[in-house]
Amino acid sequence: MDQDDLTVAAADFQAPPEPSGRIGVLYRRFVEPLLRQDDGTDAEQLSQATLSALGQVSPRRNWPLMRGTLEGLAGELQRRDPRLQQTLFGCRFANPLGLAAGFDKNGVAAGIWDRFGFGFAELGTITWQAQAGNPRPRLFRLAAERAALNRMGFNNEGARAVKRILEKQALPPPGQRPAVLGLNFGKSRLTSLELAPDDYASSLELLASLADYAVVNVSSPNTPGLRDLQEESQLRRLVERLRRLPACPPLLVKIAPDLEDDAIDAIARLAYEEGLAGIIAVNTSQERFGLGERLIAATGRSLAEEAGGLSGRPLRARALEVLRRLRATAGPALPLIGVGGIDSAPIAWERITAGASLVQIYTGWIYEGPELVPRILEGLIQQLDRHGLRTLTEAVGSGLPWR
Predict the structure, then answer these.
(1) How far is 64 from 66, CA to CA, in rounded Å?
(2) What are the C-alpha distances in Å from 52 to residues 108, 133, 271?
(3) 8 Å CB contact between 182 and 155
(4) Residue 120: strand pairing partners
(5) pLDDT of 101
(6) pTM of this prediction exceeds 0.85
(7) With contact defined as beta carbons under 8 Å apart, do 319 and 327 qualify?
(8) For the segment 22-35, what is each residue's pLDDT rounded down to a tens digit?
(9) Domains of the chain listed by start with CATH number
(10) How many CB atoms lie within 10 A of CB 212?
């Protein structure tokens, strides 16, 4: 994919299909207009308002009125097909589509993500110490490019508070949930790199019993020095510390899209040697993909002048490149999770056939709305039919085109 594919003007975007259900109609009428331009309702305030509402619902999901409403939501958004099921690193996924880390940072809606059609959800990033994050504004829409810039800085309530939040929701135990729940862990900002392994270990040890799997986030660009932990010796020291914990859940690492090929290869080898359960590719990018002169409405500064990680469609090509590199180096046995710029069924299929067993969405889900989940799942089922495949596993790494 060349640079012209990455620098996309607003006119190049097609409107999503007409919503087919009530939730889609409501989203298109009341939320989508807020996302058509960069300014207007603050992006972080909009996300927080949504999470606040979901956080009220999740602990009460079994109340009769709530249960009925959520069953209606699930009826519109869930798509069940046994061909989409997979068992990876001991976890049974009803479908391969997950919510990426960064949206539900404190796990307030952990009990209801399956109702939105997701096969899994990744909560966090969680740090040992509670953190306010970076100064606001710190989350910006780039509406024309279907992208976002964030420099949130791991704002979360801290591992001990997250434990209370999750326990209050009375979740089924790991392995018995309608949607797999991963917990994503990061380094506390005030903790030095030398003490980082103990910082991660404190959070993971406290929350291990609540996680279906755990993710070592060493790739956010918004905590100073964090990406240094991707260096092979540093990452090996960190992983070895975590794997010594009692009852350590399946452990994955999330990497940056900005790594050189040699560094990607080194992480793939480390994952094999240290027995990691998988790799998530990729986090947000410090690259600007030809959009450096793009102005941020809220600050009046160019994208090149603003700190933070870029997500959404501009990241799509690089995310695919990193995934293909990992698959080539790691071989077919190591599970990979593809994330970055996935906002349609063809892009999800491309990521799966390039080697991802699972895919995650976030920025695309915000722009496209809740019906993106069933659209992607229906598209995957359609491709299985058209290629005569019995299971999604047969598609992983196959290189089969979208038909």
Answers:
(1) 6
(2) 8, 18, 37
(3) no
(4) 98, 180
(5) 98
(6) yes
(7) no
(8) 898 999 999 999 99
(9) 14-394 (3.20.20.70)
(10) 24
pLDDT tens-place string over residues 203-238: 999 999 999 999 999 999 999 999 999 999 999 999
3-class DSSP state of 151: coil
Q: Is the dihedral of CA 298, 304, 308, 312 positive or negative?
A: positive
Annotated active-site residue 220? The verdict is: yes
Which residues have a Cβ under 8 Å from the Cβ of 56 and sit 6 or more positions away? none
The owner of tokens 């390039």 is 354
Cα separation values, 286 from 134, 182, 210, Å = 16, 25, 32
When computed from its CA atoms, the radius of gyration of the chain, rounded to whole angstroms, is 20
Contact 373/97 with Cβ under 8 angstroms?
yes
Task: Say how far apart CA 50 and CA 185 lie, in whole Å.
Answer: 23
For every residue of 13-36, DSSP letters joined together read PPPPPPP-SHHHHHIIIIIGGGGS
CA distance 222 to 127: 13
* Residue 393 pLDDT grade (very low, low, confident, very high; cuts 50, 70, 90): very high
CA triple 37-39-45, angle to 5 deg: 110
List 220, 285, 344, 357, catalytic entry: 220
